[in-house]
Amino acid sequence: MTMISRVLGFVRDIVIARFFGASEGTDAFFVAFKIPNFMRRLFAEGAFSQAFVPVLSEYKETQSTEALKELLAKTAGTLATVLFFITLLGVIGAPVLIYMFAPGFDSTGSRYELAVDMLRITFPYLFFISLTAMAGGVLNTYGKFAIPAVTPVLLNLSFLAAICWLSPLLERPIMALAWAVLLAGIAQLAFQFPYLKQLGLLPRMSFDRGHAGVKKIMKLMLPALFGVSVTQINLLVDTLLASFLVAGSVSWLYFSDRLVEFPLGIFGIALATVILPNLSKSHAAGKTKDFSASLDTGLRWVVFLGLPAAAGLFFLAQPMLATLFQYDAFTSTDVDNASLSLMAYSIGLPAFILVKVLVPGFTARQDMKTPVKIGIIAVVSNMLMSVVLVFFFQHAGLALATSLAAFVNAGLLFTILIKSEAFKPQQGWVSFVIKVLIANLVVGVIYAYDYSPVQWYEWGAFDRVLHLTLEILMVVLLYVTTAFLVGMRPRHLLLKGK
């Protein structure tokens, strides 16, 4: 389901690039969408989910059904009330927010005005998608992973419908993108309701921040607001600094980030979604070996999938961008510029995925302070490196700084988990890593020998798609075959030791 959503996301971005290119209009929209999307990562699958799921799991294991339903009702009511006021402030304060997050936009120019108008439409998306995330947390806790996984498809379908049918009717066609965001938020929330009702867990909202469970969630959530969203904060820093660069810089960063988000969403978020309930359950039951074994398995998957994914994005940056986006309004110059930031982002992909897997190792134990402290260090590191690298590499320097900061974040999280003895690596790690590196090296050498980026610009759409598909299939087959030949087996990636 996650794969379907990601593929449709690519289709969405292809259509956006084809219709609107990398322009002042797309720069304005990506800023207007990034602000509520950033807060969504905080209130939705970010800090809220990390705080809500452990408490929900605890109630499910130790409390009655009535107590659990009361927790859901009080949490939903309190969350909705808070979100309503935040949304109201966001809509009213849209000019201030755009000035804060994109200070390089001329406050008297069309790009600034367009971004403000768009933000007033997109900001309410935060309200609906955050409640959707709560519903998804409930469904995941009860093993209904498919429904939350397929829900994001509605966002992509909304974009496609708005571009094709709504944009021709508007005076400013690009405004259709903003309306698509709002309609998608409503649709995603409504989609979850029947499945909650089937479980008998559709909450009757009731505001009560004094409820013990709500207080516990809020206590866990407040420090996590920063800690679990470090990557998104770093991306906002990129957007802020990119607003001072040439028109199109924000869009180049967006399109390159979207390609990185594909494996991150498939591997990172999927792993985190599955691992958090398991970790929370193990911790609640006091099963330390199960806790460590779950983390060990997650980290093995990160190494096995994250390294080749990063290498693939780096070497195939231009072919991927040309194949997906170089049509009509999106030019070869845009491909060249976006490929630079994509290569820089791809360096940090293993670290991005690691963070998604490591943070649940803290939140499942209801330790929110440690990720916060580490997050602060990572954000400060990103800011300092961004200010320096942007002078040398322009928008690509911003992407590189974000990648390096992700390694700082992941490295510190991993070190502390080891030192606290919450995670004890199982045997065979050295051999496992060597086999993965050999497989990646073989693929890299063979591919680099036969690589020629120029021809991709000369091919038409059919040839690009055909050759890119064959290239990816060949690389995947070569990687899996090489890994098998050097001794890699499925058992090396399965959960061990209870």
Structural overview:
This protein has 498 residues and is mainly α. The protein has two domains: 223 residues, no CATH class; 271 residues, no CATH class. It is 80% helix and 0% strand. The protein is built from 21 helices and no strands.
Tally of individual domains: 2
Question: What best-fitting shape do the alpha-carbon axes yield?
Answer: globular
Going by helix content, strand content and strand pairing, the class is mainly alpha
Mean pLDDT: 82
Secondary-structure element order, as H and E? HHHHHHHHHHHHHHHHHHHHH
Helix amount, in percent?
over 70%
Report strand %: under 5%
Q: Quick summary of this structure?
A:
This protein is mainly α. It has helices spanning 2-20, 24-43, 47-62, 65-92, 94-101, 110-122, 125-141, 146-150, 153-166, 175-198, 212-227, 230-242, 249-284, 288-315, 317-325, 332-347, 349-363, 369-419, 429-449, 454-458, 461-485.
Write the layout of secondary structure elements.
Elements: H1 2-20, H2 24-43, H3 47-62, H4 65-92, H5 94-101, H6 110-122, H7 125-141, H8 146-150, H9 153-166, H10 175-198, H11 212-227, H12 230-242, H13 249-284, H14 288-315, H15 317-325, H16 332-347, H17 349-363, H18 369-419, H19 429-449, H20 454-458, H21 461-485
Helix pairs in contact: 1-9, 1-13, 2-6, 2-7, 2-12, 2-13, 3-7, 3-11, 3-13, 4-7, 5-6, 6-10, 7-10, 9-10, 11-18, 12-18, 13-14, 13-16, 13-17, 14-16, 14-17, 14-19, 15-16, 15-21, 16-18, 17-18, 19-21
Structural descriptors:
single chain, 498 residues, mainly alpha, 2 domains
